[in-house]
Amino acid sequence: MPISINPDGNYVLGSKIGRRSADLVLLGLDGKTRAHKRLPYAWPDPVVVLRWLEDTTVAFRATVPTVAGLGIALPSRLWDWAEEVPEGQIAMQAWRDIDLVATFGATGLPVMVVNDGAAACAAEMTFGTLPHGDEVLYVFVGTFIGGGLASRGSLVLGASGNAGSFGSVLVQGSDGVVQQLIDVASLIGLERALRAKGQTAEVLRLEPTQATLSNPLVDRWITQAAHGIAQAMISAVATTDSRLVIVDGAMPAEILDVLVARVAAFMPRYPLAGIDVPTIQRGTIGPLARAIGAASVVLNERFLAWPADIKGQAA
Q1: Which residue of 45, 66, 218, 223 shows the fewest CB atoms closer than 10 Å?
Q2: What is the phi/psi pair of residue 22, to 5°?
Q3: 245-272, pLDDT tens digit by residue?
Q4: Is 34 helix (H, G, I), strand (E, B) or coil?
Q5: Which residues of 127-153 are buried (b: 16+ CB within 10 A; e: fewer)?
Q6: What is the pTM of this model?
Q7: Distance between CA 167 and CA 147 in Å, rounded?
């Protein structure tokens, strides 16, 4: 007799705390989103964000019989880029001393905390097209770029949980200046360029028209970001011998498609002696990958046989 998982047999919660917004999703055991809420902000004030997350967690739990746990994804050392939002520097520094496991442990739920890039990678591993037998590099382009690393079906976190934090990789711009990838391939750069010219940054959150894609500021950012990602992935491939790079992001699908195509086109322009050019593939989860990934970490830990080594970060 065929056996299948009851999609409503249990539920998991996943949250992303980012630099421009927070998300909370409620997933069934089939990975489908049952509920989603977002809190936008100029910077992540911990008092405001944690109160919202606590209240929304209570509200979501009231809609289902049982919840197996809460996963929380956020950038490692969130406060390190506080200078990007001067008005929020003091509030953002408070994240240094916050223990999220202890804070949400009072809910009675098992709580797991993971780097947001690694969480997005986990979402692609669990619900997307990421192959389980290979070394795979995963890039997620959000307000700040990040990523994750998968090895033979396991999510690799490293000693501090930051494996795959590609934003720190050094790359060279067209002007010859060496910078971190985070400075050339993050959406905050495009946001600033648009606003400096009096244009709205809503193109990053709404489905764009063809006029948006032909906007020279958008086109320039895509080219700059693609060159940076191509360079960073060459360095990463030389270290990991990965044959596949997946690129996803918190942006409209049309912009992401162009970005992925340009990464693939630009990579062969750089010196590649000693390595095989990897396949560049578009991610399948999209803007909610980090929150869905946080939930998938709980789902895998509690119910599935996926060997993600994150037990040390669980409550």
Answers
A1: 66
A2: -120, 145
A3: 999 999 888 899 999 999 999 999 999 9
A4: strand
A5: bbebeeeebbbbbbbbbbbbbbbbeeb
A6: 0.90
A7: 8
